[in-house]
Amino acid sequence: MTAEPSATESRDFIREQIAGDLASGVHEGVVTRFPPEPNGYLHIGHAKSICLNFGVAQEFGGRCHLRFDDTNPVKEEQEYIDSIQEDVRWLGFDWGDNLFYASDNFETLYTWAEHLIETGNAYVDDLSADEIRAYRGTLTEPGRNSPYRDRTPDENMDLFRRMRAGEFDNGAKVLRAKIDMASGNINLRDPVIYRILHAAHPRTGETWCIYPTYDFAHGQTDAIEHITHSLCTLEFEDHRPLYDWLIEHLPVPSRPRQYEFARLNLTHTVLSKRRLMQLVSEKRVAGWDDPRMPTLSGLRRRGVPPGAIRDFVGRLGIAKTNSTVEMAYLESCMRELLNKTAARRMAVLRPLKVVIENYPEGDGELLEAVNNPEDESAGSRQIPFSREIYIEQEDFMEDPPKKFFRLAPGREVRLRYAYFITCTEVIKDEAGNVVELRATYDAETRGGDSPDGRKVKATLHWVSAAHAIPAEVRLYEHLFDAPDPGAGKDGDFLADINPNSLEVLNDCWLEPALGDTSLDETVQFERLGYFCPDPDGSAAKPVFNRTVGLRDNWARLQAKGQQNG
RNA sequence: UGGGGCGUGGCCAAGUGGUCUAAGGCACCGGUUUUUGGUAUCGGCAUUCGGAGGUUCGAAUCCUCCCGCCCCAGCCA
Predict the structure, then answer these.
(1) Which nucleotides along chain B are within 7 A of a protein C-beta?
(2) How far apart are the C-alpha atoms of A135 and A147, rounded to whole Å?
(3) Which of A193, A220, A426, A487 is the most exposed place for a label (fewest CB within 10 A)?
């Protein structure tokens, strides 16, 4: 794919830094990496990092690696390794041959741990996890040295080798870097760099029973891959001194630098792995790819084009201020792209039958409809028309308020690409509900234009009853009512779940052309919104998901009217 | 109370001492166009840059102090 021009001319501080490093000769090229831990599915927050890392590499003619930060086998799974690759590719990025795993370097990392021991910069500690915590001090009080801190290099080496050999149980011992227990930066208070974990690793199996921690793996792996600019989020800012310390004290082949930017937060959803995991495991949603989820797989199933996500992330920019972006911004990016690319189709979600009494019984015809008014090359299609059609229930009102332009008794409206019709009769059931309409059509208005130039205030979408395909349509709203789930009372984000985030409509009718929609295509249902087929559907009964609705001024007007009484 | 960051309109975000009585986008309000109450288009929307002092002919940009918010006490990443 090609790099897309950024919304603004200016560069963010990271691109500024890279451009400067290239100009001054500090680096001859740029190498970045996207380093997910395979312990969950990627979400739109990761998209920001993916677009940054791959985007920067493209813009400066460098490369970007996909590297799995797989240092904790108790949380990581092959399923996640697979889904992450699929999602990054779907988003539109290609790592070529540069697929790596931190675990590729376990042997090297082990060697470097021994190097630290030899140089007196690491020691084996027998303290328990609780004791280590107690010795660590607090945010305001310095820590105390472990009684095992002064073991000799020989003793440490022996113990560390026995740790690797599997002589000790989980948690019995750890390897710690010997830095400064009094540091104001807690990451420097002798951080644990190796722990005993008798657990099978998705890549290395049973080979290891000790695993490096994030801090001992990340920077070194960057160095091994010759990463020039290691981009991560703000919470790692105070890990940078440790990152640098390790680079300085180890015989690494290159000297990468870490830069931090603010992670993405979005209103009306959650983006923490813990919470997403909880939604899935407690079955609050149908799975990681539930269309209401902010995961890339969820957005994909919802019909959001990857280009809309790239555009969104690009427009936000990169900075260091914590920010929460309104969901409306994302939705706006979806609409903007989809408006230009999505094929127009007609579908009736809540059908109301209309019988056109002066249209010959048994007759029918094909009418031409434009596929996309924004894109002439999309061509046109034929839509069947006949005596009985369905229109949207909300497009008719028996006793309309002044601003309602749609169908009403005695009123004439246009059926898109078809004819002008006039409502002549309202048929109700015993309960008084409108169940059917009678109408007449003007044969002179075929295609939707009146030869006498008379105007009509509304154009309705419709579907021929005899030709329509029955379908299920799923309407989605924000997964959470609250802009910031869990911000209220007890911090219980589940309490903010929107009980109406999914509405299933079972009696929908689609124009015939919709039967050919491919699974990865998002179309516009005219006047309603953008929709895409869901894999749950079948040829006989397709299922469509609403990606995002069209902007709806009428709905807004109504809402205002209700507000004002 | 230790360390590290950040504070520009409702939400993002440019701005790196004069061209800033502060760009752009989203949202919002209003007009025009329209066979989608969609799209497009036009106009409106911060005399002010967390606050107070100071330096300077001149500050959102430099200095000082203050205030607010975020992150860190996993053998998670």
Answers:
(1) 1-8, 10-16, 23-29, 35-40, 69-77
(2) 10
(3) A487
